[in-house]
TrEMBL record:
This protein's record includes keyword ATP-binding: yes
EC code(s) of this entry: 6.1.1.19
Keywords, alphabetical: Aminoacyl-tRNA synthetase, ATP-binding, Cytoplasm, Ligase, Nucleotide-binding, Protein biosynthesis
InterPro entries on file: Arg-tRNA-ligase (IPR001278), Arg-tRNA-synth_N (IPR005148), Arg-tRNA-synth_N_sf (IPR036695), ArgRS_core (IPR035684), DALR_anticod-bd (IPR008909), Rossmann-like_a/b/a_fold (IPR014729), tRNAsynth_Ia_anticodon-bd (IPR009080)
Protein name: Arginine--tRNA ligase
Length: 572
């Protein structure tokens, strides 16, 4: 995939500045920023040059601007800044043609070609439901994976299930006490059994010890215990896959902590050789210097059973050996920051250099979604509620003539899921946010529904205009509002690269809002001035040019929404 128009002209501007100043382009690349739209598209400040050149910044800027000649750019000085504006042509045609030709692939690139990223995300526990609190890891991880795929990376997405540990012992002994043999493959029944068992274990140490003993049997490869574990695990995975299919999310691998059952002893032996281990109150810990009040890294409990940290160390080593990754990303809540700091510290102490390519992609909490009793809020319940609320809005808008659709139920599902996804992804991932039904389903706010409506509006304009034109005259698109839409479209490839580099899908979400707002401003111009209508009568070449811009907008909106995992309805 070729370099985007925006990146091409920016690189040419940087190179021209570097040659004029006699320095490497890398020295000034970070200093070239987007300009105030009133002054251009790119801007370079000359303040840092004043001391060396013994000139005032405005004088330096004037000299540079006079000498720089870059095809496709109009370069001028504005006080201490050297500003560059993309020429109407060929920039306008390049952006429109790229968006229309690439469709939902628009914004992608090849910076990840030949590279592999391993993604660890979602990660529910077996014999427990996927709760709403899993939504952040799931949708953020899915979006980050999509961003890397768009840039040419080979993505190895891993749903790393919590399928090993005492919690399964609770399910097993709970089933012995409360289970119905006829419902062994009923996920809802297993959840009910787990809740009862967990409540009892908190009150009865003897029952809790039975659960621990069952887990010890699993680690000792007891055939009966493992058979029951396998059956319950498969029941859980079937239910998980049903939910992921509804969300439109897939994983390259569904693995679990159990995958490393026979790989932990070699890792413990390696840690013993390289870092050192010691006993602490009967438990085996990594012999590291710890800060005051910092809990140690436990490899084995005093009863000999392994822990999450042990399995994560084995998983990190195994994933590098299997995939030879260029990046390994863990999309896990900020609450687990200490765990990952310690995990990376142990790997570094072991001499495992690949740890430098491992990143904890942390995220904040969701507030405002809880029950009065403090029970877990199931993700399926939230999805059903979103669809139900969206359906009520769809039907109301149909009655008022604001929406046209042949399938209100399907549209409500798309809007409901889009609301959940975008309600999360528009926020910086490291921050907390408050879930609010009225806010996320608002058709005129900063919501998924607003963006889906913008996409559907563009599709409707194209239908009314006779379809997307095969040819058009880009030189006719001279209105400031048309150029504002164009420049918003042009930025997506840059935004995708930045979002992938920072593992920050909110960059794409914010870009989508910007493009939708610019397109709305442009489209509504025709309400005040008939000459500015997209579907202009009496000037067919101008109408075709505006339809081409509308088609490019549609394609760009679809590309951005698809990256975030959000559906793109054509009728709303």
């Amino acid at each position: 995939m070729s370099t985007s128009a925006y990146s091409h002209y920016r690189a040419a501007f940087v190179e021209a500045l570097a040659q004029s100043l006699g320095v490497p382009a890398s020295e000034i690349d970070a200093q070239v920023k987007p300009a105030d739209p009133a002054h251009g598209d790119l801007s370079f400040p000359t303040f840092p040059l004043a001391k060396a050149q013994k000139k005032a910044p405005p004088a330096i800027a004037a000299g540079l601007a006079q000498n720089l000649k870059v095809p496709g750019l109009e370069i001028v000085a504005a006080g201490p800044y050297v500003n560059a504006r993309f020429s109407l042509l060929p920039f306008t045609a390049e952006v429109i043609d790229a968006a229309r030709a690439q469709g939902t692939r628009y914004g992608g690139g090849d910076s990840g070609a030949g590279k592999t990223v391993v993604m660890d995300y979602s990660s529910p526990n077996i014999a427990k439901p996927i709760a709403f609190h899993h939504i952040r890891s799931t949708v953020i991880g899915h979006a980050v994976a999509n961003l890397h795929r768009a840039l040419g990376y080979r993505v190895e997405g891993i749903n790393y299930l919590g399928d090993w540990g005492k919690q399964f012992g609770l399910v097993a002994v709970g089933f012995q006490e409360y289970g119905d043999p006829a419902k062994r493959q009923d996920m809802a029944h297993l959840v009910k059994v787990y809740v009862q068992a967990n409540q009892r274990a908190e009150k009865e140490p003897a029952f809790d010890e039975r659960a621990r003993d069952f887990f010890r049997r699993m680690e000792a490869n007891d055939a009966e215990a493992l058979a029951l574990w396998k059956e319950f695990r498969e029941t859980s995975i079937r239910d998980f896959l049903r939910i992921y299919a509804r969300l439109g999310i897939r994983f390259e691998h569904i693995e679990g902590e159990s995958f490393y059952q026979d790989k932990m002893e070699p890792v413990i032996a390696e840690i013993s050789r390289t870092v050192g281990v010691k006993q602490s109150e009967g438990a085996l810990i990594v012999d590291l210097p710890y800060e005051e009040n910092e809990p140690p890294v436990l490899l084995k409990k005093n009863d000999g059973s392994t822990l999450y940290a042990t399995r994560d160390l084995a998983a990190a080593i195994d994933r590098h050996e299997r995939f030879h990754f260029d990046k390994s990303l863990y999309v896990v809540a900020t609450d687990q920051s200490l765990h990952f700091r310690q995990l990376f510290r142990v790997l570094k102490a072991m001499g495992r250099d690949f740890v430098e390519r491992m990143v904890h992609v942390n995220f904040g909490r969701v507030h405002g979604m809880s029950t009065r009793q403090g029970n877990v809020v199931l993700l399926t319940d939230v999805l059903d509620e979103a669809r139900s609320r969206a359906l009520a809005l769809v039907k109301n808008n149909i009655e008022e003539g604001k929406i046209q659709t042949d399938d209100p139920e399907a549209l409500a599902e798309q809007i409901g899921l889009g609301a959940i996804f975008f309600g999360d992804l528009k926020n910086r991932r490291a921050t907390d946010y408050t879930f609010d039904w009225d806010e996320i389903l608002n058709f005129t706010g900063h919501t998924g529904a607003y963006l889906q409506y913008a996409h559907a509006r563009a599709c409707n304009i194209l239908r009314k205009g006779g379809g997307a034109p095969t040819t058009y005259d880009a030189s006719r698109l001279t209105l400031p509002e048309e150029q504002a839409v164009l420049r918003a479209i042009a930025r997506l490839p840059v935004v995708v690269q930045e979002a992938a580099d920072q593992q920050e899908p909110s960059y794409v979400a914010r870009w989508l809002l910007d493009l939708a707002a610019e397109f709305s401003r442009y489209y509504t111009l025709g309400n005040q001035d008939r000459a500015k209508r997209v579907l202009l009568e009496g000037d067919e070449p101008l109408k075709q040019a505006r339809l081409a811009l509308t088609d490019a907008t549609r394609a760009a909106l679809a590309a951005g929404l698809t990256l975030l995992g959000i559906a793109t309805p054509e009728n709303m």
